[in-house]
Amino acid sequence: MPLNNRKVLFGLLGLIAACSIIFVVWPSVDLQITGWFFKGAGFPIAHNGPIEAFRLLLWDASLVVLALFLVMTLASAILRRPLLRLPLRTWAYGLTIYLLGPGILVNGILKAYWGRARPFSVSDFGGDRLFSRAYTISDQCSANCSFVSGEVAGSTAMAIGLWLILSAWRDTMPKAIHALLAAMIVAMPFVTGLQRVAAGNHFASDAILAGLFVALIAALLRPMLRPRP
């Protein structure tokens, strides 16, 4: 494993460990952050039309990027040549991140079996369910639960995929345009996470850990990008 990738990998492991310790040892942090957005009897952001429309746009975009990586992986494998300046290994890398991150780890395992109730449904914010700290397996939710955020995981996978495409086309565009697009791509997971927390659909730990888990998977899979001998 290249030295730079080791640094990224250990850095992500350190961030996950630090965030996990904070949210497990001090679960009130989750409640306090959510409380910043709870007004009166609910979460006003959840009923904001333009913000909700933008959230759905990002969600649809993540599905489009997933479909793009699936199609281009298959096409590149069949045609046996790079497509849109990206070789097969890069398309397969982006697709695998989607499958292992948002697909299997987040939606297939964590959201399906950990049973954490969403913020709007816990008693602290007007609901009838009990709050459970991060990583705690609970019986307060039976399906599509809060731990961790599927949309943040999908947005993170999308950002990684778009970054791969942008990197391949970097020399074809002005630096200012490249910098703007790069900033927009990096901002996507953060914007998605902020909206999910502000709308009372996820706790901060759900959003932060979802992004970090997918980023960790991407770092672990990075050897896929090496050219074959």
Backbone CA Rg: 19 Å
Number of helices: 7
Q: Which residue ranges are poorly predicted, with pLDDT under 50 across at least 5 consecutive positions?
A: none
The major β-sheet equals: none
Distance between the termini: 16 Å
Could you estimate the helical fraction of the residues in percent?
A: 55-70%
Mean pLDDT: 95
Order of helices and strands: HHHHHHH
| Derived structural class | mainly alpha
| Count of extended strands | 0
Q: Tell me, briefly, the overall form.
A: globular
Strand content: under 5%
Explain how this protein is built.
- This protein has helices at 3-25, 28-35, 49-79, 88-113, 150-168, 175-198, 204-221.
- It is mainly alpha-helical and 229 residues long.
- α3 (49-79) packs across α4 (88-113), α3 crosses α5 (150-168) and α5 (150-168) runs antiparallel to α6 (175-198).
- The longest helix is centred in the N-terminal third of the chain and has 31 residues, at 49-79.
- The relative contact order is 0.18.
Layout of secondary structure:
Layout: H1 3-25, H2 28-35, H3 49-79, H4 88-113, H5 150-168, H6 175-198, H7 204-221
Notable traits:
single chain; 229 residues; mainly alpha; 65% helix
Outline:
With 229 residues, the chain is an all-alpha fold.
